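Regression test attached.
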Amino acid sequence: MAVSELGSIAEIEGWEAPVHKPLPIRLALGLKNFARKKPLGFVCGVVVIFFFVIGDVVPETTNKVSRTIGLSDHPVPYLADQLEQMVPWLYPYAKQDLRARLEGASNAHLLGTDAIGRDILSRLMYGARTAVMVSFGAVLISMSMGAFIGIMSGFYGGWVDKVLYRIVDVFQALPPLVILIVILGIFDSGLWQLVIVLGVIGGPIQSRTLRGQTIYVMASPFIEAARVIGCSDRRIMMRYILPNVFALIVLNATFSLGFLVLLEATLSFLGYGLPPPFPSWGQMLSLEGRQYMRTQPGLAIYPGLAIGMLVFSFNLFGDALRDVLDPRLRGSR
Amino acid sequence: MQKYILQRLLLTIPTITLVTVFIFLLLRVFLPADVIDLIIGEYGRNDPELRAALERELGLSGHLYTQYFEWVGVSWFWGGERGLLQGDLGASLHSGRPVLGELQRRIPVSFELGLWAQFCSIIASVPLGVFAALRQDRFADYGLRSVAILLAAVPSFWIAVLVITFGSIWFNWAPPINFRYLTEDPVAHFKIMLLPALIIGLTPSGGLIRLTRTQMLEVLRQDYIRTAHAKGLSQTTVLYKHALRNALIPVVTVIGVGLPQIVAGTVIFEQIFIIPGMGRYLVDAVNNLDYPVIQGLTFVFAVLLMVSVLLVDISYAFLDPRIRFN
């Protein structure tokens, strides 16, 4: 049958070509659907976004010099610096005021001040930035690594699989907290070191499930079809396998986000996190919190609450996402 | 079955070898600060002779591979020092005490803490999980599930900090500072261990409650449960003999794999509650760049983790006949 005999699709009776709405509208509709199906998960997603934003409104420097952004020579006022002038209770996170040490809650300091007169609320807000940056950065690295190792060993099998799996075994044999303390304790810790080390340690462990899923996908007829039409290995991996394991990657990512926030807090608590003036929740609980907790119990309470809230939101958001993305697991929580 | 165990045992050999290579490379090649510099700093003079003597004494001279062979103990076969293969983990650079002797005192403490934590968590969460499954989608179920999710989200060291803070504010109580070993003073020992164990057990309980509940629901849906009911067995027999046993198989895995993680996780509580276990030893060693101790400890942690994973896999085979006879 020649193609012309079929006629164009639009001519088939009683059938209307679907109108493709523009992407933003489709995204908005998807979000609305998600919100209706999983209200709790949606709320938790909003909380996560709230934590994303909140760290960026805290001014970084104590002196109010406007910085230039991009190529323009004109000093562009930094949003956070402007906010500092407008909002009376917002301070740079490292600004000390030794006359106002360990003050209680007041209009000037909504949650009080710490032992060297820094505003607790501002530090708490900036700490969200640390938590979010570290967890997302590390997840990005570990997921890329996990996907690479998992798909490679699932796809090629044979000696590639064997070699990669001995390496994965090594990483699984080392307790993460121990190896992290060793690495971060010996090297100087900083934001990037923390992100990279956390990511690299998690990568091989993430590859386990992805390898299994790859092997499962490899058995499907469409992979065979792709081979028959002469696709290269790389094309099969990128265009056929990756999209099919992507849902699993997203799920693993959301679940490890909460775990990473906890791990970062634990490391900072032990003193292997970010160096001191930079606020992190775990660190606030350790040095500052424990010494002065009798006079300022807020130092012991709020950072922990913030960690709990962020991890809780990540976990519930992940649960909701799993229910929507993976119909097989629905209702089996 | 024996073939399976043998196969698993053989597979651990390359993994352990690679673990030692990894640890060695990490500490000897990528190590930025030179330990010799630190020690020479204590002498207050920097002459090359002293440096060479120290390097020889600490096993830092020669090629990297000879250093590695010395650490692992391969060179013992042609007349070198004793190494890992002979059960010698080396000695601390600072105190000079052998790592093995130090570990003999510290491993039991950390393990005891981990076991108590595990025990507290299992005792509380398995019955709660079963209870939640039996009351599916009712108030108790929702309540327990929320508690479980909360427990998994809240950092346990925060709870420890809160307990210490408000213990001192409200009751004028502080955790004891002097540690007592079990053999010295059992009562004081348990007083010290109880609180950290309870708090460490909280985080895994969250996951355990959820897992037990899911597994229980899964099993209760099976046909053989209906058959058991139809045979006229009592509710308790069906629950404990037929359902719970099968539901607990994955729970056993999680518990077994979780133990070394918990032991590693005691690091933080050993710092808070001042308990002389492996975690404190590790933190002290890292702060002093005491690399024989770091190497030895990391190796011991890795072996512990691998042994428990192995034991779990084998017990899995015993519990699940489908694996045993395959």
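Expected vs. actual: identical. The interface with chain B takes residues 166-167, 169-170, 172-179, 181-183, 185-187, 258, 262, 265-266, 269-270, 282, 285, 289-290, 293-294, 297, 300-301, 303-304, 307-309, 311-312, 315-316, 332-333 of chain A (CB under 8 Å).
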